[in-house]
């Protein structure tokens, strides 16, 4: 899972195995290990909500997706979920293969529907 933060926008991008894990287990989590602390980012399904929500507690950002959407996302063609939550713009999306050169392993990314940049 990748995280991108710019101003008040938080975006998570998930590869195939992560979308599948979210559908089956209800959560996906990654961490970045700093020398003294870990920075954790998590996507979690949540009952009783209708749109994406977020919280930042301690050293962890958690985005919440409605549990029904989390369960079916793996089996749909839907690419993106987005919502404004307070001052935040939240996005989660399936991660496509890059069209330009990258050294990153993209073997589990989704096929890019575009043919050029």
Number of helices: 2
Number of strands: 8
Cα end-to-end separation = 22 Å
For the sheet with most strands, the description reads: 4 strands, mixed
Compute the number of structural domains: 1
- H/E order of the elements? EEHEEEEHEE
- CATH architecture term: 2-Layer Sandwich
Structural class per helix/strand content? mainly beta
CATH domain topology: Gyrase A, domain 2
Mean pLDDT across the residues is 88
Runs with pLDDT <50, length 5+? Answer: none
CATH class, please? Alpha Beta
How are the strands ordered across the major sheet? 1-2-8-7
| Tertiary shape | globular
Fraction of residues in H or I helices? 10-25%
Please render the helix and strand layout as text:
Layout: E1 2-6, E2 9-14, H1 16-25, E3 27-33, E4 38-46, E5 53-57, E6 60-66, H2 67-72, E7 80-85, E8 88-94
Parallel strand pairs: 2-8, 4-6
Antiparallel strand pairs: 1-2, 3-4, 5-6, 7-8
In short:
This protein has 117 residues and is mainly beta. It has helices at 16-25, 67-72; strands at 2-6, 9-14, 27-33, 38-46, 53-57, 60-66, 80-85, 88-94.
């Amino acid at each position: 899972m990748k995280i991108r933060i710019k101003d008040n926008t938080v975006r998570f991008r998930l590869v195939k195995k992560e979308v599948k894990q979210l559908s089956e287990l209800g959560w996906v989590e990654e961490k970045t290990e700093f020398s003294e602390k870990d920075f954790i980012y998590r996507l979690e399904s949540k009952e009783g909500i209708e749109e994406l929500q977020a919280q930042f507690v301690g050293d962890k950002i958690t985005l919440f997706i409605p549990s029904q959407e989390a369960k079916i996302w793996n089996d749909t063609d839907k690419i993106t979920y987005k919502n404004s939550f307070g001052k935040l713009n939240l996005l989660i999306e399936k991660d496509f293969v890059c069209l330009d050169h990258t050294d990153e392993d993209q073997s589990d990314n989704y096929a890019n529907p575009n043919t050029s940049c």
